[in-house]
Amino acid sequence: MDFSDDLLARLEHARHVMFFTGAGVSAESGIPTFRDAMHGLWARFDATELATPEAFARDPALVWGWYEWRRMKVLQAQPNPAHRAIAALAADRRVSIVTQNVDDLHERAGSTVCAHLHGHLSRPRCFDCGLPTRHPAGTPTPADGGARMTPPSCRKCGGPLRPGVVWFGETLPESDWQAAMAALASTDLLFSVGTSSMVWPAAEIPGWASRRGSCVVQVNPQTTALDEIADFNLRGPAGQVLPALLAASERRRHAR
Ligand code: BV8
Ligand code: ZN
Fold it and tell me: What domains can you pick out in the chain, each with its CATH number?
């Protein structure tokens, strides 16, 4: 894959690079994206219908089973070359990662994450009293086609545990949002990697960066609403594009 010298120069001279990532950055680790069709028990749902407090209240076992299946996929997954290239790019420049993902694959690739805008799969809490807790050790084993799993009970009030993620209709964690806004204020190069840019308010971030004068680069094999404002559209899977960009930037630097 070739990259314009303009892009490589911007990457070399950027003072603060933001990686704004979505489900697509974990796709090559085998983690289904939100837009991927669901199978088995959950096939009749759109992910956005299950990722709500109402869906959990209506059928806690259906929703908890879905999240345990997703947690199993994450525990069985490894960071892919996209996660590793982002970690490597942070070695000699200021990088902030703002992710919409609820997995920990950036961290397992060695990155520090500035903001998890939509929470964490690994931090369940009580649906009723909010008491945070931990998952038991080991990997859950729900059937691949989906299984209802009764959520464990809160040790304090007996309420059902819920995933520590931000559901549709819920506000984003204030501290993560503020951290993302603070990073955005000094970002001069933003990579939007693997997101359909369809969930608000996170989807506003690349547009805000562009309007502040940042260079915006999109990495996605598909077109998205971001195509219109991105300065560069790198059309391909992140697990191929980002390592190639890292290699090209190192070649350019050594050629000087
Ligand atoms: C809120 C956690 C205040 C759960 C998720 C305007 C303003 C404010 C709110 C709204 C608004 N308009 C509408 C809303 C409501 C709603 C919303 O945005 N709805 C959408 C459906 C229209 N927003 C909210 O409710 C938010 N809350 O605003 O609070 C408030 C409070 C009360 C009332 C009103 C407002 C909360 C949203 C958070 C939802 N939780 N996740 C969980 O994980 O289960 S969002 C979920 O979908 C993901 O976390 C992700 O962030 C999001 C989008 O998914 P993507 O990451 O983009 O993944 P997707 O599958 O969509 O796309 C993957 C992309 O990757 C594709 O483009 C594909 O081409 C690409 N790809 C595939 N393979 C690769 C690849 N790219 C690169 N390489 C590859 N190999
Ligand atoms: Zn409780």
Answer: 1-31+79-120+172-256 (3.40.50.1220), 34-76+125-162 (3.30.1600.10)
pTM: 0.97
Per-residue confidence in pLDDT tens, the chain, 256 aa: 899 999 999 999 999 999 999 999 999 999 999 988 888 888 889 999 999 999 999 999 999 999 999 999 999 999 999 999 999 999 999 999 999 999 999 999 999 999 999 999 999 999 999 999 999 888 888 888 889 999 999 999 999 999 999 999 999 999 999 999 999 999 999 999 999 999 999 999 999 999 999 999 999 999 999 999 999 999 999 999 999 999 999 999 999 7
| DSSP three-state, residue 121 | strand
Q: What sign has the CA pseudo-torsion 88, 81, 120, 122?
A: negative
Ligand 1: residues with CB < 6 A are: 22-24, 27-28, 33-35, 48, 51, 100, 102, 118, 165-171, 194-196, 198-202, 219-222, 224, 237-239
Q: Which helix (H) or strand (E) holds 180?
A: helix 174-184
Q: What is the CA radius of gyration of the chain?
A: 19
Tokens of 154: 């809160």
